[in-house]
Amino acid sequence: MKEFNDKVVLITGTGGQVGRVAAQMFALAGAKVLGCDIATEPAEETCRRVNEMGGEMQSLAPLDLANPVEAQRWVDEAIALWGRIDVLFHIAAGIAIAPFNEASIEHWDLTIRNELTIAYVASRAVWPHMLKQKKGVIVCLSSIAGHLELAGFPAVAHGAANAGLQALTRMLAAQGAPHGIRAVSISPGLIANPDALSSPTLDEYGLPIARPLWRHAPLGRPARAAEIVETALFIASDRASYITATDIAVDGGMSGIIWNSKV
Protein backbone atom coordinates (compact mmCIF):
# COMPACT_ATOMS: atom_id res chain seq x y z
CA MET A 1 0.00 0.00 0.00
CA LYS A 2 1.30 3.43 -0.93
CA GLU A 3 2.06 5.74 1.99
CA PHE A 4 -0.33 8.52 0.97
CA ASN A 5 -3.22 6.40 -0.31
CA ASP A 6 -6.55 8.18 0.29
CA LYS A 7 -4.77 11.31 1.54
CA VAL A 8 -5.44 14.73 0.03
CA VAL A 9 -2.39 16.93 -0.47
CA LEU A 10 -2.63 20.59 -1.45
CA ILE A 11 0.53 21.97 -3.06
CA THR A 12 1.13 25.62 -3.89
CA GLY A 13 3.35 26.76 -6.75
CA THR A 14 2.92 23.64 -8.89
CA GLY A 15 3.95 25.51 -12.01
CA GLY A 16 7.49 25.83 -10.67
CA GLN A 17 10.29 23.29 -10.67
CA VAL A 18 9.99 22.16 -7.03
CA GLY A 19 6.20 22.28 -7.16
CA ARG A 20 6.13 20.05 -10.21
CA VAL A 21 8.45 17.50 -8.63
CA ALA A 22 6.40 17.62 -5.43
CA ALA A 23 3.15 16.97 -7.30
CA GLN A 24 4.72 14.01 -9.10
CA MET A 25 6.28 12.47 -5.99
CA PHE A 26 3.22 12.84 -3.75
CA ALA A 27 1.00 11.45 -6.51
CA LEU A 28 3.34 8.47 -7.00
CA ALA A 29 3.02 7.87 -3.24
CA GLY A 30 -0.75 7.59 -3.69
CA ALA A 31 -1.93 11.10 -2.79
CA LYS A 32 -4.77 12.98 -4.41
CA VAL A 33 -3.12 16.28 -5.32
CA LEU A 34 -4.65 19.72 -5.81
CA GLY A 35 -2.19 22.27 -7.12
CA CYS A 36 -2.32 25.96 -7.85
CA ASP A 37 -0.16 28.67 -9.37
CA ILE A 38 -0.38 32.22 -10.63
CA ALA A 39 1.06 30.96 -13.93
CA THR A 40 -1.50 28.97 -15.89
CA GLU A 41 0.46 27.11 -18.57
CA PRO A 42 3.19 25.56 -16.41
CA ALA A 43 0.62 24.58 -13.77
CA GLU A 44 -1.51 22.86 -16.41
CA GLU A 45 1.60 21.09 -17.76
CA THR A 46 2.35 19.73 -14.27
CA CYS A 47 -1.21 18.48 -13.95
CA ARG A 48 -1.01 16.80 -17.36
CA ARG A 49 2.26 15.05 -16.51
CA VAL A 50 1.00 13.77 -13.17
CA ASN A 51 -2.19 12.33 -14.64
CA GLU A 52 -0.34 10.78 -17.59
CA MET A 53 1.93 8.89 -15.20
CA GLY A 54 -1.12 7.45 -13.44
CA GLY A 55 -1.41 9.89 -10.56
CA GLU A 56 -4.49 11.84 -9.54
CA MET A 57 -4.19 15.62 -9.73
CA GLN A 58 -6.37 18.65 -10.27
CA SER A 59 -5.19 22.24 -10.50
CA LEU A 60 -6.55 25.78 -10.27
CA ALA A 61 -4.67 28.44 -12.23
CA PRO A 62 -4.30 31.33 -12.37
CA LEU A 63 -4.80 31.64 -8.64
CA ASP A 64 -3.42 34.38 -6.39
CA LEU A 65 -2.89 32.86 -2.95
CA ALA A 66 -2.37 36.24 -1.32
CA ASN A 67 -6.06 36.91 -1.95
CA PRO A 68 -8.10 35.20 0.80
CA VAL A 69 -11.08 34.80 -1.55
CA GLU A 70 -8.92 32.97 -4.10
CA ALA A 71 -7.30 30.81 -1.44
CA GLN A 72 -10.73 29.86 -0.11
CA ARG A 73 -11.87 28.95 -3.61
CA TRP A 74 -8.89 26.60 -3.88
CA VAL A 75 -9.61 24.92 -0.56
CA ASP A 76 -13.32 24.66 -1.35
CA GLU A 77 -12.39 22.82 -4.55
CA ALA A 78 -10.42 20.23 -2.57
CA ILE A 79 -13.34 19.67 -0.20
CA ALA A 80 -15.79 19.39 -3.11
CA LEU A 81 -13.56 16.86 -4.85
CA TRP A 82 -12.40 14.71 -1.94
CA GLY A 83 -14.03 15.89 1.29
CA ARG A 84 -10.86 16.43 3.32
CA ILE A 85 -7.39 18.01 3.43
CA ASP A 86 -4.54 16.06 5.00
CA VAL A 87 -1.45 18.03 3.95
CA LEU A 88 -0.68 21.57 2.84
CA PHE A 89 2.75 21.79 1.22
CA HIS A 90 3.44 25.47 0.68
CA ILE A 91 6.10 26.06 -1.99
CA ALA A 92 4.99 29.12 -3.97
CA ALA A 93 7.25 32.16 -3.63
CA GLY A 94 8.47 35.19 -5.49
CA ILE A 95 11.15 37.74 -4.68
CA ALA A 96 12.33 41.12 -5.89
CA ILE A 97 16.10 41.32 -6.42
CA ALA A 98 17.79 44.54 -5.37
CA PRO A 99 20.54 45.55 -2.92
CA PHE A 100 19.42 47.59 0.07
CA ASN A 101 20.67 50.95 -1.22
CA GLU A 102 18.71 50.49 -4.46
CA ALA A 103 15.60 48.74 -3.16
CA SER A 104 12.25 50.49 -2.97
CA ILE A 105 9.27 49.86 -0.73
CA GLU A 106 7.78 48.04 -3.73
CA HIS A 107 10.68 45.54 -3.64
CA TRP A 108 10.04 44.95 0.05
CA ASP A 109 6.27 44.64 -0.27
CA LEU A 110 6.43 42.24 -3.22
CA THR A 111 8.80 39.88 -1.43
CA ILE A 112 6.91 39.88 1.88
CA ARG A 113 3.64 39.31 0.02
CA ASN A 114 4.96 36.49 -2.14
CA GLU A 115 7.07 34.68 0.45
CA LEU A 116 5.21 35.24 3.73
CA THR A 117 1.68 36.55 3.24
CA ILE A 118 0.69 33.78 0.83
CA ALA A 119 1.74 31.12 3.36
CA TYR A 120 -0.36 32.81 6.04
CA VAL A 121 -3.41 33.07 3.78
CA ALA A 122 -3.13 29.48 2.52
CA SER A 123 -2.73 28.15 6.07
CA ARG A 124 -5.77 30.08 7.29
CA ALA A 125 -7.82 28.63 4.45
CA VAL A 126 -7.03 24.98 5.28
CA TRP A 127 -7.08 25.44 9.06
CA PRO A 128 -10.82 24.96 9.77
CA HIS A 129 -10.82 21.64 7.93
CA MET A 130 -7.77 20.34 9.79
CA LEU A 131 -9.35 21.41 13.07
CA LYS A 132 -12.52 19.53 12.19
CA GLN A 133 -10.54 16.41 11.25
CA LYS A 134 -8.32 16.76 14.35
CA LYS A 135 -5.40 15.96 12.09
CA GLY A 136 -3.28 17.63 9.44
CA VAL A 137 0.23 18.62 8.43
CA ILE A 138 1.46 21.96 7.12
CA VAL A 139 4.90 21.96 5.51
CA CYS A 140 6.34 25.33 4.45
CA LEU A 141 9.28 25.59 2.08
CA SER A 142 11.51 28.28 3.54
CA SER A 143 15.21 29.03 2.92
CA ILE A 144 18.48 29.08 4.80
CA ALA A 145 18.26 32.84 4.19
CA GLY A 146 15.94 32.79 7.21
CA HIS A 147 18.96 31.74 9.32
CA LEU A 148 21.86 33.57 7.72
CA GLU A 149 22.30 36.34 5.18
CA LEU A 150 23.66 35.37 1.77
CA ALA A 151 25.99 38.26 1.03
CA GLY A 152 26.16 37.49 -2.69
CA PHE A 153 22.39 37.41 -3.12
CA PRO A 154 20.99 40.96 -3.13
CA ALA A 155 17.35 40.40 -2.18
CA VAL A 156 16.52 42.98 0.45
CA ALA A 157 13.54 41.22 2.08
CA HIS A 158 14.27 37.56 1.33
CA GLY A 159 15.93 36.79 4.67
CA ALA A 160 13.34 38.71 6.66
CA ALA A 161 10.47 36.99 4.86
CA ASN A 162 11.89 33.52 5.46
CA ALA A 163 12.69 34.16 9.09
CA GLY A 164 9.06 35.22 9.34
CA LEU A 165 7.92 32.09 7.51
CA GLN A 166 9.78 29.90 10.00
CA ALA A 167 8.21 31.82 12.89
CA LEU A 168 4.78 31.50 11.28
CA THR A 169 5.30 27.74 11.02
CA ARG A 170 6.21 27.50 14.72
CA MET A 171 3.08 29.48 15.61
CA LEU A 172 0.94 27.11 13.52
CA ALA A 173 2.55 24.17 15.32
CA ALA A 174 1.81 25.69 18.72
CA GLN A 175 -1.79 26.49 17.83
CA GLY A 176 -2.31 23.13 16.14
CA ALA A 177 -0.70 20.78 18.66
CA PRO A 178 -3.82 20.37 20.82
CA HIS A 179 -5.78 19.50 17.68
CA GLY A 180 -3.46 16.94 16.09
CA ILE A 181 -2.03 19.42 13.57
CA ARG A 182 1.72 19.48 12.95
CA ALA A 183 3.71 22.22 11.18
CA VAL A 184 7.32 22.10 9.99
CA SER A 185 9.42 24.32 7.72
CA ILE A 186 12.17 23.11 5.39
CA SER A 187 15.10 25.36 4.51
CA PRO A 188 16.99 24.51 1.33
CA GLY A 189 20.13 26.24 0.20
CA LEU A 190 20.33 26.47 -3.57
CA ILE A 191 18.36 24.15 -5.83
CA ALA A 192 19.63 23.16 -9.26
CA ASN A 193 17.43 23.82 -12.27
CA PRO A 194 18.21 21.10 -14.82
CA ASP A 195 15.53 22.41 -17.20
CA ALA A 196 17.22 25.79 -17.66
CA LEU A 197 18.41 26.53 -21.19
CA SER A 198 22.14 26.84 -21.67
CA SER A 199 23.21 30.45 -21.30
CA PRO A 200 26.34 32.47 -20.52
CA THR A 201 24.44 33.88 -17.52
CA LEU A 202 23.81 30.44 -16.00
CA ASP A 203 26.19 27.99 -14.39
CA GLU A 204 26.22 24.24 -15.03
CA TYR A 205 23.34 23.78 -12.61
CA GLY A 206 21.13 26.30 -14.36
CA LEU A 207 21.53 28.86 -11.56
CA PRO A 208 22.00 32.57 -12.30
CA ILE A 209 24.57 34.51 -10.21
CA ALA A 210 24.76 31.52 -7.89
CA ARG A 211 28.13 29.85 -8.48
CA PRO A 212 29.89 31.67 -5.60
CA LEU A 213 27.03 30.67 -3.30
CA TRP A 214 26.64 26.97 -3.96
CA ARG A 215 30.40 26.49 -3.75
CA HIS A 216 30.01 27.21 -0.04
CA ALA A 217 28.04 23.96 0.28
CA PRO A 218 30.47 21.40 1.71
CA LEU A 219 28.79 18.68 -0.37
CA GLY A 220 30.00 20.57 -3.43
CA ARG A 221 26.78 21.12 -5.37
CA PRO A 222 23.29 22.57 -5.08
CA ALA A 223 20.36 20.36 -4.16
CA ARG A 224 18.17 18.45 -6.57
CA ALA A 225 14.48 19.30 -6.25
CA ALA A 226 13.70 15.65 -5.43
CA GLU A 227 16.01 15.81 -2.40
CA ILE A 228 13.95 18.65 -0.98
CA VAL A 229 10.66 16.91 -1.72
CA GLU A 230 11.85 13.65 -0.14
CA THR A 231 12.20 15.55 3.12
CA ALA A 232 8.67 16.92 2.74
CA LEU A 233 7.30 13.45 2.03
CA PHE A 234 8.79 12.18 5.26
CA ILE A 235 7.60 15.16 7.32
CA ALA A 236 4.08 14.88 5.90
CA SER A 237 3.90 11.16 6.61
CA ASP A 238 2.86 9.34 9.77
CA ARG A 239 6.51 8.29 10.20
CA ALA A 240 7.20 11.86 11.36
CA SER A 241 4.28 11.96 13.80
CA TYR A 242 6.47 13.34 16.62
CA ILE A 243 8.11 16.13 14.60
CA THR A 244 6.61 19.61 14.73
CA ALA A 245 7.53 23.27 15.43
CA THR A 246 10.97 23.02 13.88
CA ASP A 247 12.91 23.97 10.76
CA ILE A 248 14.92 21.38 8.86
CA ALA A 249 17.89 22.61 6.84
CA VAL A 250 18.44 20.67 3.61
CA ASP A 251 21.31 22.78 2.36
CA GLY A 252 24.35 20.56 1.83
CA GLY A 253 25.89 21.86 5.04
CA MET A 254 25.86 25.54 4.06
CA SER A 255 24.33 26.72 7.34
CA GLY A 256 26.27 24.36 9.61
CA ILE A 257 29.85 24.39 8.34
CA ILE A 258 32.18 27.31 7.67
CA TRP A 259 33.74 26.15 4.45
CA ASN A 260 36.93 27.36 2.82
CA SER A 261 36.95 25.95 -0.71
CA LYS A 262 40.70 26.57 -1.01
CA VAL A 263 41.52 24.10 1.78
Keywords:
Rossmann fold, 40% helix, alpha/beta, SDR_fam, 7 helices, seven-stranded parallel beta sheet, 7 strands, oxidoreductase activity, acting on the CH-OH group of donors, NAD or NADP as acceptor, 263 residues, globular, SDR family oxidoreductase, NAD(P)-bd_dom_sf
Molecular structure report:
It holds the Pfam family adh_short_C2. One of its GO terms (molecular function) is oxidoreductase activity, acting on the CH-OH group of donors, NAD or NADP as acceptor. InterPro entries: NAD(P)-bd_dom_sf (IPR036291), SDR_fam (IPR002347). It is a single chain. The protein has 263 residues and is α/β, with parallel strands linked by helices. The chain has a single domain, classed as Rossmann fold, CATH 3.40.50.720. 40% of the residues lie in helices and 14% in strands. A seven-stranded parallel sheet has the order 3-2-1-4-5-6-7, sandwiched between helices. Strand 2, helix 2 and strand 3 form a beta-alpha-beta unit. Helix 1 runs parallel beside helix 2 and helix 4 packs parallel to helix 5. The longest helix is centred in the middle third of the chain and has 29 residues. The chain starts with 7 loop residues before the first strand and ends in a 13-residue tail after the last strand. The model has no long low-confidence stretch (mean pLDDT 92).
